[in-house]
Design a protein that fits this description.
With 489 residues, the protein is an alpha/beta fold. It has 16 helices and 18 strands.
């Protein structure tokens, strides 16, 4: 599991560690690691042209010390200061053979093999000042950000068009949430972490987590070795589809089966029921609507909503499913219904997962805004549910405030029906936890489902576009990939 920590906690860890070390040790550790990653990106350091964008704080000092290391290896290093740079770091660069551009900075910067962004650190908030934005615009070359791209909010990922767009961000001590979500994720590029010794001084449980393959719950046979029959692998009920949108029922049901549900009980109106029966003959199909859907048989979890509609009959269906004392995943049209009746969610004792995109989230009376992590947390706490806030970087929040950001998201998943596949896959994982599943199980199912959905999307697209049906078919490939990574040395 990878942890990400807000600025306040990173600063506290630095303050606890620094008195135990010789002065400047943390900065030197960071700068050396930064120089190593820059060298790897360059390939050949000797003769490379490197431009440093240098602010007056510690990020500027990190850039200068790293620049000095690169200069000692033969790089041609030019520092472009914005404000008065840290004196000892500036002296180190000059001693290594680097030099400083004139002040104020020139309007045009020379082309470079590498541009090192050390303008603003993790304490920066809001848009870049005009002079900094001008430097960023003038820089020409592959960009490496020091700890965080300048102009990106370290805690939320908020950024405007003036923010640095890096190919690589070298983070020091800990990942920052702003590197994982929102515009910050896009601006950061690839993120590499340099360990500077903060680990023992950070909270044991990171406020924001990122799953690695070994953390993903897949419901694969190897993981469910104790499962003796279809019932112990998880029985999922699906109430989805309508005469107008039967495909949603087909996709959601198929994803549940691909994700390993031991049995699928589908309940819906005649046309979607007929389509599910035709596409997935292994399903147990009941033609039912409204409150009667829960007569489909005993299940260990429900998915309700994809293609269901939002009229009176659909409302009765949602109310009936939420009245069952088993975990329920609420998606699509059922979210619209629940936004009209939030009390139905608050009254539940069994776990509930909501899977809104931004517009569906707004139906609950608030906008997502720039702080996606905060938005997911707020709705989860308000309703007492797990919230899976969909996006390229999907955020999963538990009612107790725990948050995971999915690392496998891809814009290839922006296709009709993709959400139906996600809900079916997450529903199967939810059912696999069996009777008595709690909020922790729902949190695991939602975050693992988002991970596998992202990998299935990427595997099905193979660098191009994809469709919901192809994502569904690629789900087992994503499971195999995770299981292989789990057992590899």
């Amino acid at each position: 599991m990878i942890g990400a920590y807000p600025v306040e906690q990173v600063r506290a860890a630095e303050a606890a560690l620094m008195p135990l070390l010789p002065p400047g040790t943390l900065l030197q550790r960071a700068a050396f690691g930064l120089a190593v990653h820059c060298s790897r990106l360059l390939g050949r350091v000797s003769g490379a042209r490197v431009v440093l964008l240098v602010g007056a704080g510690n990020n500027g000092a990190d850039a200068l010390w790293a620049g000095a290391e690169l200069a000692r290896r033969g790089a041609q290093v030019t520092a472009v200061p914005l404000g008065e740079p840290v004196a000892d770091a500036a002296q180190a660069l000059r001693a290594a053979g680097g030099w400083f551009a004139a002040s104020p900075p020139p309007a045009d910067l020379p082309p470079a093999d590498l541009v090192l962004d050390g303008l603003v650190g993790i304490g920066g908030r809001g848009a870049l000042r005009p002079d900094a934005a001008r430097l960023v615009h003038a820089a020409q070359g592959r960009v490496v950000a020091v700890d965080l791209p300048s102009g990106v909010d370290a805690d939320t990922g908020a950024a405007d068009d003036s923010a640095v767009r890096a190919e690589l961000t070298v983070a020091f001590g800990a990942y920052k949430p702003g590197l994982l979500v929102g515009a910050g994720r896009d601006r950061a590029g690839r993120v590499e972490l340099v360990d500077i010794g903060l680990g023992p001084y950070l909270p044991a449980r990171a406020p924001v987590e990122v799953l690695e393959p070994r953390d993903v719950h897949t419901n694969a046979p190897a993981e469910r070795a104790a499962a003796q029959d279809k019932y112990t692998r998880g029985v999922l009920g699906v109430a989805a589809g309508s005469e107008q949108y039967p495909g949603a029922a087909v996709l959601c049901s198929g994803a549940a089966l691909r994700a390993g549900a031991g049995m699928l009980r589908f309940a819906g109106t005649p046309h979607p029921a007929e389509q599910v029966r035709a596409h997935w003959p292994e399903s147990v199909v009941t033609e039912a609507a409204g409150a009667d859907v829960v007569q489909a048989g005993r299940v260990q979890a429900w998915v309700v909503g994809p293609g269901l509609g939002t009229g009176d009959e659909a409302e009765a269906t949602v109310q009936a499913v939420l009245g069952e004392d088993v975990p329920v995943l609420v998606d699509a049209d059922a979210l619209t219904v629940c936004a009209r009746h939030p009390g139905w969610l608050r009254a539940r004792s069994a776990p509930t997962v909501l899977t809104p995109h931004d517009r569906e989230y707004a139906r609950f009376g608030r906008e997502v805004g720039e702080d996606r992590i905060g938005a997911a947390r707020a709705l989860a706490a308000d309703l007492g549910v797990v919230v899976l806030l969909k996006g390229v970087a999907t955020v999963v929040a538990a009612p107790d405030g725990r948050v995971r950001v999915n690392p496998t998201g891809t814009s290839a998943l922006a296709a009709a029906g993709s959400g139906d596949v996600l809900s079916g896959g997450c529903g199967a994982l939810l059912a696999s936890f069996g009777d008595g599943a709690d909020d922790a199980a729902a949190y695991e199912a939602a975050s693992s489902g988002a991970y596998l959905h992202g990998r299935a999307g990427a595997l099905s697209a193979r660098g191009a576009s994809t469709s919901a049906s192809r994502v569904l078919d690629a789900w087992p490939d994503a499971v195999r990939e995770v299981e292989a990574a789990r057992v590899s040395p």
